[in-house]
Amino acid sequence: MREHPSYFRVFLTFARNSLIRDMTFRANFVLECVSSVSWTLMNVGFYLIVFHHATHIGPESGWGKYEFFVFLATTWFVNSLVQAFFMPNAHEFSELIRTGNLDFALLKPIDTQFLVSFHRVEWSSLINIVTGMVLLAVSLWQLTTRAVNPLVINPVVILLYPAYVLCGVAILYSLMIALAATSIWLGRNQSLYNFWFYITNFARYPMEIYGRGWGWSLWGFFTFVVPVLLVVNVPARLLARPLDPRAWWEWPLAGFAILATIGSLLASRWVFNRALRSYRSASS
Predict the structure, then answer these.
(1) What is the per-residue pLDDT for 232?
(2) Lower CB count within 10 Å: N or C terminus of the chain?
(3) What is the CA radius of gyration of the chain?
(4) Domain contains 17
(5) What's the longest Cα–Cα distance across the chain?
(6) What domain count does the chain have?
(7) Which DSSP state fits 86?
(8) How many Cβ atoms sit within 10 Å of the Cβ of residue 143?
(9) Would you say residue 284 lies in a domain?
(10) Separation of alpha carbons 13 and 27, rounded Å
(11) CA distance to 93, 107, 117, per residue, from 264 (Å)
């Protein structure tokens, strides 16, 4: 047995096995894809109604119709990756603890966090990446061809955009695996989905909406303490450029997003390992 397994090859094996399992129940797979696409289309329809009554989300925010659709497409990219690779595994982690099957994961010659994070892939969740690409392409075409102040896309931004999407995925993964690890102390954390929805709901909108009154406290907390506001706002702002010229704080915010990503990964790793030290095996 190899002492240092190839993690990429192990991940490919997990992904292939998950695809085989999904294709065993093809009707269910198709229904899940149709359900996901229907949900995204309903979201687009809802915001089309909103922009029928308003031109921007917030006064002087810069988030017009197609700028916001770039934001919405970015949200789908991030959420699709998280739901495909991490959400089902985090949901099953508490069952591994409750049934004692975490013992078998700990005995494997591979990093436990990697194993419990990637052993299952929900392929149907990736369908929203396709719909997001369509929405992003249409939105950028509208922004770059408009008669007044057309958007000029910098090639550097094209390279930075997917990198910051992955940073957003990493931040949400860190939050998710830290929440899942609390199952070791709580025994069974069935509130994971609810708490996850409450926290990530703040990331679904441009951060400008929190810029008044007591909303500043929410902006500060979810930017610098639990940095979920960085997940979509940073890549979407880089690409859509709602403010022209850019606000002075946008590039420092992009730099902070990198630090927040590294800090989130390190913090979640610490929480996970600390929780594992408190785990009592099923045989004890």
Answers:
(1) 93
(2) N
(3) 20
(4) yes
(5) 71
(6) 1
(7) T
(8) 22
(9) no
(10) 23
(11) 20, 27, 16
Interatomic CA distance for residues 227 and 229, integer angstroms:
5
What's the CA gap between 224 and 62, in Å, rounded?
23
What pLDDT was estimated at residue 190? 60
Residue 282 lies in a domain: no
**251 vs 155, 237, 241, 246, CA distance in Å?**
16, 10, 12, 9
Please give the model's pTM, rounded to 2 decimal places.
0.90
Residue 250's closest CA among 229, 232, 233?
233
Question: Quick one: 234 exposed, middle or buried, by C-beta within 10 A (0-12, 13-18, 19+)?
Answer: buried
What is the full DSSP assignment across 40-95? HHHHHHHHHHHHHH-SBSSTT---BHHHHHHHHHHHHHHHHHHHHHTHHHHHHHHH
* Cross-strand bridge partners of residue 64: 56
CB-facing half-sphere around the CA of 19: CA atoms within 13 A: 7
SS3 64: strand
Token pair, residue 91, equals: 């949901």
Q: Would 273 be classed as within a structural domain? A: yes
Instruction: Give the SS3 label for residue 56.
Output: strand
Count, residues in the chain: 284
pLDDT tens for each residue of the chain, 284 residues long: 445 568 889 899 999 999 998 888 889 889 988 998 998 899 999 999 988 888 888 767 788 899 999 999 999 999 999 999 988 888 888 778 777 778 888 888 888 899 999 988 999 889 999 999 999 999 999 999 988 888 888 899 999 999 999 999 999 999 989 888 888 877 666 666 667 777 778 888 888 888 777 888 988 999 999 899 999 999 999 998 887 777 788 889 999 999 999 999 999 999 999 988 887 766 55
Token couple for 13: 């094996």
- Domain residues for the domain of 14 are 7-277
